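To start, an entry.
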Amino acid sequence: MNLLKIRYFVEAARCGSFSAAAAKLYTSQPNISKQIAQMEQELDYPLFVRDKRSVRLTAAGAFLYEHLKDMPERLETLFEQAAILSRKEESRLSIGILEGQDVRPQFLYRLELAKERYPHLEIELERNSFANLRNGLKAGHYDMIITLDFDVEQEPEFESYVMFDQAPAIAINRKHPLSGTDELDMMQLRNEDFVVISPEESPVGYDRFIKQCQETGFTPRIVRQPRSLESLILCVEMGVGVALLDQHTRLTYNDAVRTIPIPGKDMYVVAACLKNDYRPMLQNVLKLLKGKHD
């Protein structure tokens, strides 16, 4: 038995006619009849009850049709996806990095290590927003993305690996009365105007912020919901409001803003790729980025 016989069987069952199935599959009616007869001989039971004008499925045939009807199309899709993967250049990787994040020296060192170990490898880096990174990975624009853990934790097709931990902080304009504080807690901010990433941009990040405020005992007053992390950072720079971030954004070096540590659950910088993407070069670079150099 082979895929051709299964395709002929499925189409004949769908059409209720060998002649109609032959027309759809651009073959002859005798060929359809021959292939299905061979299939029945191999199975040792009939699949169709035949009469002069039409055919109908036996009970066994109906059972097989129900379980095989999507197989030809599914296999075609799988083969197409495999062909796309086989055409991807092993000498090139596209990595998307979350905008606004400070690129740690350890990350740069690990990238340099990858270039030394694989001299022919070309690595393309691109900054982008939460949503664009997720969508870009799904669409194949990126082979890997470097982002925060919460933004990919509800993506079932992603596999993510922790690279660094990120302590939470409040980004606050230096003109704000609280900017001179060495450490803040959320209750001190209950009356503040907040700038929060849009729920369309990062649904989990938005929900996580709301939950943290509510667990502290207040509902945050949100004055802006930017669609990008860069826009959020700009709002803090302009004194529009305060923002809950991590301590490794570009604001760390900004004269107009302070990032003040705040108690709370750590965030993590993760490298994420598609599950079951077993390309050797991708896996080798991922291993280096995770800090495994052996």
